[in-house]
Design goal:
mainly beta, Jelly Rolls, 8-stranded antiparallel β-sheet, 7-stranded antiparallel β-sheet, 4 helices, 15 strands, 36% strand, globular, Beta-glucanase-like, hydrolase
Length: 293
């Protein structure tokens, strides 16, 4: 009995922290791209980007000379956008690996953006996954971020995991292995991105802020810093698509999240969320009115 009770407690704790089933799996509902170049082009750092022979995957890396990025061939007005990503272990402080939507090239200094960003770290500490939403961001330094940060319930360097963004006229949902970790609803026209955006992936040096607010910077003794992407899913409506092109469903019901998805999101936020901009007392919440409603 003395041995049984500690074992039972361990099993119960492990079970309580096990990833719940969301009941809906968008990363498997939609067919991946048949080739990288069917959906993307190199944006910068071509010598730091390698596409596999069958175009099923792309590897990008950062060294002291350059990082790299790619961009979707066309913009979208809504959709589900996903990829399986594997990150580099070890010392990666100051390095950002990103998968995101943006129209910054079409609207410089006044753009919209929806981010999944992996913030590099030091050995023994977990990666931080940062989600963010920018709406008509300004170029005068008054850029209003809406960050929510998470630690993951697995090691993102040990294998590929699915990460996704679903964007429709009413909400943005961030997914990790099909578990919704964040739902950002449209509460007003001024707090929600509505203009077409392109899909991007990149790796770059953000030493000034990425790791513990810039405490640890990129150390190029550990270069190259590598990120691998595969199984791209790009299921969205182009700006010129007819009205019959409908947004990708966020649940088996179509719009919104199901009860099981809400429960899974609650689990992720209770156990793994480490920052919520709406709960930050240092933030000026007059600039983020959605936090008050």
């Amino acid at each position: 009995m003395d041995l049984f009770l500690p074992c039972l407690l361990f099993v119960m704790l492990h079970w309580s922290n096990a990833q719940p089933s969301p009941g809906y799996y968008p990363s498997y509902r939609f067919r991946p791209l048949r080739g990288f170049y069917r959906g993307f082009n190199n944006l910068w750092g071509p010598e730091h980007q390698s596409v596999s022979g069958d175009q099923s995957s792309v590897t990008i890396w950062l060294d002291r000379n350059s990082g790299s990025g790619f961009k979707s061939i066309r913009p979208f007005r809504n959709g589900y956008f996903g990829a399986s990503i594997k990150l580099q272990p070890g010392y990666t402080a100051g390095v950002i690996t990103a998968f995101y939507l943006s129209n910054n090239q079409a609207h410089p200094g006044f753009h919209d953006e929806v981010d999944i960003e992996f913030l590099g770290t030091t050995p023994g500490k977990p990666y931080t996954l940062q989600t963010n939403v920018y709406v008509r961001g300004s170029g005068d330094g008054n850029i209003i971020g809406r960050e929510m940060k998470f630690h993951l319930w697995f090691d993102p360097t040990a294998g590929f995991h699915n990460y996704g963004i679903l964007w429709n006229p009413n909400e943005i949902i961030f997914f990790v292995d099909d578990v919704p970790i964040r739902q950002y609803p449209r509460k007003s026209a001024g707090t929600f991105p509505q203009r077409p955006m392109w899909l991007y992936g990149s790796i770059w040096d953000a030493s000034s802020w990425a790791t513990e607010d810039g405490k640890y910077r990129a150390d190029y003794r550990y270069q190259p810093f590598v990120a691998r992407f595969t199984r791209f899913i790009v299921r969205g409506c182009a700006p010129s698509a007819p009205p019959r092109c409908r947004p990708a469903p966020s649940s088996s019901y179509g719009a919104g999240l199901s009860r099981r998805q809400f429960a899974a999101m609650g689990w992720a936020q209770r156990h793994f969320m480490v920052y919520n901009y709406c709960r930050d007392p240092k933030r000026d919440h007059s600039l983020t009115p959605e936090c008050r409603s």
